[in-house]
Each structure stands twice: as C-alpha cells, then as structure tokens.
Amino acid sequence: MATPKFNSKSPTIRRILKEAAELSNAPSPDYTATPLESDLFEWHFTFRGPPNSAFADGIYHGRIVLPPTYPLRPPSFRFTTPSGRFEVNREICLSISGHHEETWQPAWGVRTALVALRSFMETDPKGQLGGLESTDAVRQRHALASRSFKCPACGKSNEEILVESKNAADAAASTSSKVPSG
C-alpha cells in the first residue's frame, strides 16, 4: 500500500499526528484510538464499557471522523458495535460532536473525546440523534456479544484490540517505574 501524502506543515496534520503519537506513547488499558493508514482524518476507537453499568462487560468499537479544520471544529462519532445505547453506523449527537460546535473546545482532543464518549454511555438517550433506549438486559446481551466483534477495517476483534492496548499500557507503566529518579 502506498503511503498517503499530506502536508506535514499543516497545523491540522501536525495536531492529528501529535495526538496519534500521544495515544500510542501513553496508552490506556480502557481505550485506544488510531487513525487509518489510508486517512488521517478517520480514526477507529475501541473502549471498555463504563464500570458498574449495564455496559461494563462490553467492548465497543467505532469511528471518529475529524473535519478538515480540526481542532477548530469538532469530530463526528459513529459506533460500529451494537450497544443498546447508540444506533450502529449513525452519527450521534453529543455536546462534543459536530452537532454542537458551540460547545467544542479546540484544546480538547481525541483522548478527551474518548473519555467523554465512554461516560455518555450512561446518559439518558431521550431525544438524542443516534441514541437508543434499551433495557439493561438488552444492553448486557450486547455487551457480551461485543467482545467478539471484528472490525472489517482493522481485521481484529475488540478483545484483541484491547488486550494489545492493555499490554502496551502495562509495558509503558513498567518502563516508567524503572526510570531512576534524581
């Protein structure tokens, strides 16, 4: 595959590359996100469901699409795994998404958006574009099924993606704890 060409002097491209590097260099055991090799503006994310919720046993996968003017304008989000909270493959309306540009802060980034998105799992979906109302039992069934979801673009299951993320986070923590202070 040919390497995509982009203007590395563009502030948007520099910001996207910086965020990708930060997520790679300081991984979390609970979430991960990375741009597609073919398109820096499309990212795939995977995160564990919020603890102590109907989503707790789930691993959720989706897409983040960054606008050409990122970070001045907010990204859009779509889930690719059923959750019982958000519709699949439909842009969702959140205060951090392109549906509410007035609340977006350019200082926020993909990591902040992922943490917020994860917390939105437990909010009331009434009247929300892309939101679903489901029982906890339905959400728990989706959570269990989500672990084996395999993204056609990534070629890995949600379980594999988060195991890799956890291993990277553990390795980073181990490395930082071995650095002598002084």
TrEMBL record:
InterPro entries: Ub_conjugating_enzyme, UBC, UBQ-conjugating_enzyme/RWD. Signal peptide: none annotated. Keywords: Ubl conjugation pathway. Pfam families: UQ_con. Residues 11-162 form the UBC core domain. PANTHER family: UBIQUITIN-CONJUGATING ENZYME E2 (PTHR24067). This is Ubiquitin-conjugating enzyme.
